[in-house]
Amino acid sequence: MLGAAVQYIKLGMIKEFEIPLPPLSVQRRLADIFSAYDDLIENNRRRLAILEETARLAYRKWFGGEEGRKATLEEICHDVRRGVSPDAVAPETPYIGLEHMPRRSISLCEWESAQKVASTKLAFEAGDILFGKIRPCFHKVGIAFVDGVASSDAIVIKPNRPELLAYVLMTVSSDAFVAAASQGMKEGSKMPRADWKQLLQYPVSLPDDETLSRFNNVLTPILAQLKTLCFSTRTLTVSRDMLLPRLFTHQTN
Known about the structure:
The chain is α+β, with helices and mostly antiparallel strands.
């Protein structure tokens, strides 16, 4: 390190650093191992995308018209505002911020531990739906597969009855609902936000029990598969990321 007050490293010194590398044959074996992990992860992501599109098609098939009793969103779901202070959150608690919510995907497979949480968050449970209310046109809406805490910039949504879960999820993640949320945004101090009170008046066609049952017979297995694929992908990703430094260190010693 150079410098009396502020230490620094010259670029030329960095270029002279020696980096241990395993033999080329070992590098190729390592590449094969990690390619296998990457292929499995990518295959899971493709299956997720196919299942989600199947769910959207089923929703449009059953509820794309004017069938059903006219109702409003507040008749099928409600928001949950259970704030949790940072000192009440266990460090290992899953935390989902808007940065973890993918666009146009109903599967919330990304989260980190809450150990860095420094402000009040919203508690949610597995099976709750999170709706990113800042710039709703980003289309960040999905179902949580774990208990945890979420950014206060998300709306935590629960169905009024358990059997309405799939219907509520597909409704609030639909293009029409997201468009309505975007058009009715409430201007905030920094970024425009979805107006939940206004969205509660969003018109829906409440299905009869028979239609809802047939819809759930399709969607419930899909949601179960999405959950399984999410956990499988996380396990593969963690294993791959932990394996790399261990294998590299072993092969270069």
